[in-house]
Amino acid sequence: MTRKICVITGTRAEYGLLRRVMQEIKDDESLALQLIVTGMHLSPEFGQTYKEIENDDFVIDKKVEMLVSSDTPTGISKSIGLGIIGIADALQELKPEIVILLGDRFEIFASACAALVACIPVAHLHGGEVTEGAIDDAFRHSITKMSHIHFVGTEEYRKRVVQLGEHPDSVFNVGGFGLDSINNLELVSKEEIEKSLDFRFLEKNLLITFHPETLEKASTAFHFQELLDALSTLENVGLIFTFPNSDTGSRSLIQKLEYFAANNNVYIFKSLGQLDYFSLLTQVDGVVGNSSSGLLEVPSFKKGTINIGDRQKGRLQATSIINCQPDKNAIIKALNTLFSQKYQESVNTTINPYGTPGASSRTVSILKSLDLDNLVKKSFFNLDVNI
After folding, report:
1. Full domain range(s) for residue 327
2. pLDDT single digits (tens) 110-125
3. Are residues 207 and 171 in the same domain?
4. Domain membership flag for residue 381
5. Tens digits of per-residue pLDDT, 262-302?
6. CB-based burial of residue 377 (10 Å sphere; 0-12 exposed, 13-18 middle, 19+ buried)?
7. Which distant-in-sequence residues (6+ apart) come within 8 Å of 39 by Cβ?
8. Coil, helix or strand for 38?
């Protein structure tokens, strides 16, 4: 009898980390993959990235609309409510035996709420991490407490999940899932990228993604303008932007970006897709912004990352990361460091702290053998014993 495992995904980035897990489940005759797609994937504003999932030959069992046409705190809260309702209905129909959730976004928080109430065991990926500049931090730890089995990226994160009261036997350090995506994609050449994306690389090039700092909502737009002002000082540098996530305040960033693009020679993509994104990483001089990818995946490409502000504060970092404040002069200084010969030579020795490829296969192997009886009944694990 096949074990039904339901994967829920709401954003392009999170799907990129889940893709190999999904493929391993799909290819295993003892498992049945179910797929619920929600959030940004279904939004025309953010590129309708569910089409990329279908192009990867996955069958979407349920599409759950949850995003309202507002990026205000009230709008995001309403989206969470709609997500819980829609995911609850989908789970009731699909009746999975395990639900897989990755990360820390509000779409995944809504999914965890629905699965918990339905008494469906939840496997949580990439828990135990810390990002002090975003409300995602609280969502992530809440999802951990609503989950029953945990697959983390490092030993430090394993200990933190245990610190949250989860039993050590339920927490597995399998490594970073992004490394599997890198390892299993045949990246395209510089010429093919230019042709498919219809642009030309310059002498130097940067890949830029800046998301709202959801705990700094009053200053996010100001911080982004500081970044744009710093980038405007560069000469003969190709600027390749991807859209921010659908977080509180994202629309003001998009408006500023579109205005900046109208007056500068830059390229904007709502979503690049994993193949084009990773292929671009092989060609650019570095990435700039505050995306988790700059810390989780970029070091594996031996490329530099300028990490701006506090959105990723607390997350484990490689030595290649250049941290700076969201201030024009600080960003310019960081850009000068990034482009320096000394720094560019140093990134060649970068070691990604998120381990080696294989997280997906290790995870699926554990899920196959997992005893589901009484899994949803948890006891709080106290730290007065040796872990």
Report:
1. 190-349
2. 999 999 999 999 999 9
3. no
4. no
5. 877 799 998 888 889 999 999 999 999 999 999 989 999 99
6. exposed
7. 9, 10, 11, 66, 67, 83, 105, 107, 246
8. strand
